[in-house]
């Protein structure tokens, strides 16, 4: 669970996660979510926070009004692992239920 992904696994995982891409400046994955309004953005963050704490795996994120910019990596592994893919997948499900802007 906490070894860095092979290039092949990483490509396949990203292909299944719309909007997620390799971070520009480090070994991580990132996405900018845009919600309908601040309420939806903060509701998303609140729900994700509960999942993150449960998994003991936490996003780096930055919120401005209705956007939430997220970066995920596994610090101990120095890169992207299945733990990041699992959290990104959970974030997709939560975002879909939270009021994403079309
Ligand atoms: C001690 C604790 O398990 C670690 O610091 C956890 C906490 N949350 C974490 N979150 C993320 N994204 N990466 C980590 O490596 C990480 N490590």
From TrEMBL:
Enzyme Commission identifier(s): 4.2.1.96
Annotated catalysed reactions: (4aS,6R)-4a-hydroxy-L-erythro-5,6,7,8-tetrahydrobiopterin = (6R)-L-erythro-6,7-dihydrobiopterin + H2O
UniProt enzyme class: lyase
Example of a GO MF term: 4-alpha-hydroxytetrahydrobiopterin dehydratase activity
Pfam families (UniProt xref): Pterin_4a (PF01329)
GO annotation, biological process: tetrahydrobiopterin biosynthetic process
Keyword vocabulary terms for this entry: Lyase
Database matches in InterPro entries: PCD_sf (IPR036428), Pterin_deHydtase (IPR001533)
PANTHER family noted in UniProt: PTERIN-4-ALPHA-CARBINOLAMINE DEHYDRATASE
Family membership noted in the UniProt record: Belongs to the pterin-4-alpha-carbinolamine dehydratase family.
Cross-referenced NCBIfam families: PRK00823.1-2 (NF002017), PRK00823.1-3 (NF002018), PRK00823.1-5 (NF002020)
HAMAP family (UniProt xref): Pterin_4_alpha (MF_00434)
Protein name: Putative pterin-4-alpha-carbinolamine dehydratase
Upper classification of the organism: Bacteria, Pseudomonadati, Pseudomonadota, Alphaproteobacteria, Hyphomicrobiales
């Amino acid at each position: 669970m906490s070894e860095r992904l092979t290039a092949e696994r990483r490509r396949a995982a990203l292909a299944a996660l719309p909007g997620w891409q390799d971070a520009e400046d480090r070994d991580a994955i990132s996405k900018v979510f845009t919600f309908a309004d601040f309420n939806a953005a903060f509701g998303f963050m609140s729900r994700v926070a509960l999942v993150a704490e449960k998994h003991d795996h936490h996003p780096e994120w930055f919120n401005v009004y209705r956007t939430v910019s997220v970066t995920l990596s596994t610090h101990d592994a120095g890169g992207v692992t299945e733990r990041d893919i699992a959290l990104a997948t959970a974030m997709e499900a939560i975002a879909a239920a939270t009021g994403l802007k079309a």
